[in-house]
Amino acid sequence: MEVIIKPDSHAASRLAARKIAALVRTKPDAVLGLATGQTPLETYDRLSELHRTEGLDFSRVTTFNLDEYLGLEPSHPASFHACMRTSLFSKINIDPARVFLPDGMSEDIPRTCREYEERLRAAGGIDLQLLGIGSDGHLGFNEPSSSLSSRTRIKTLTDRTRKDNAAAFGGEDNVPHHVITMGLGTIMDARTCLLLAFGRKKAAAIAQAVEGPVSAMVPASILQMHPRAIVILDEEAASGLKRTEYYRWVYDHKPSWQKD
Ligand code: PGA
């Protein structure tokens, strides 16, 4: 696991966008795994800007999102379909036929999940999966106690996650209980995992995920088993880590060609 600590979320988001852009430039038909929530929004802004100012080309890129709420139409403003449209897809030249999110309106959930996995495989697997972390340590919507080898399936949100996401729904009571999410096994199949976390609210979850034992109680800790997991943090999210001096030294002494 590579831990990179940046002074603030702006610098961290710029670095994340540079890494994604570098992949898209070297592999124009890259398969990106995307995340929603507050954390990746500035990274998406930077990518949109790179598209606008430098012509970063997404026309052959394929994307798969981690998750979606059950029972929300894609037009519902709090759906992840809508969030992705507003924060990224409407601002870049992505081909809508290459954009995939779990179908929250599915009437046959096991089949929808199976087909999502099949589509992912048919696309050649994910080159880079962008990830946030829940304050309860979740990855995607894999809540504590999720199987560490799970595949795409229905999950039930914890009260903590429903509280964390209440603002988008105008109150906790309106947050759906159920979601479809890629499993931890699905996420671990990505060739690179790029986890972002900002703010003091994430410090405890990051400390457990990065330096604690691998445990289904902290689903993001499974990234310790990934051969290429990169964790980009701001100072506040890194504030619960014990080995920050080591992580900083490693990053500061990397050859410059390895830094982006
Ligand atoms: P956030 O959500 O980016 O809105 O904090 C992250 C997550 O729940 O995985």
Which terms summarize this structure?
binds 2-phosphoglycolic acid; alpha/beta; about 30% helix; about 260 residues; three-stranded antiparallel β-sheet; Rossmann fold; seven-stranded parallel β-sheet; 10 strands
Structural notes for this entry:
The protein is an alpha/beta fold. The protein has one domain (2-252): Rossmann fold, CATH 3.40.50.1360. The chain has eight helices and ten strands. It has helices at residues 9-26, 41-54, 80-87, 109-122, 159-164, 184-188, 203-211, 244-252; strands at residues 2-6, 31-34, 62-65, 67-69, 99-100, 128-131, 153-156, 178-181, 192-197, 229-234. Helix 1 crosses helix 2. It starts with a strand and ends in an 8-residue tail after the last helix. The structure holds 2-phosphoglycolic acid (PGA).
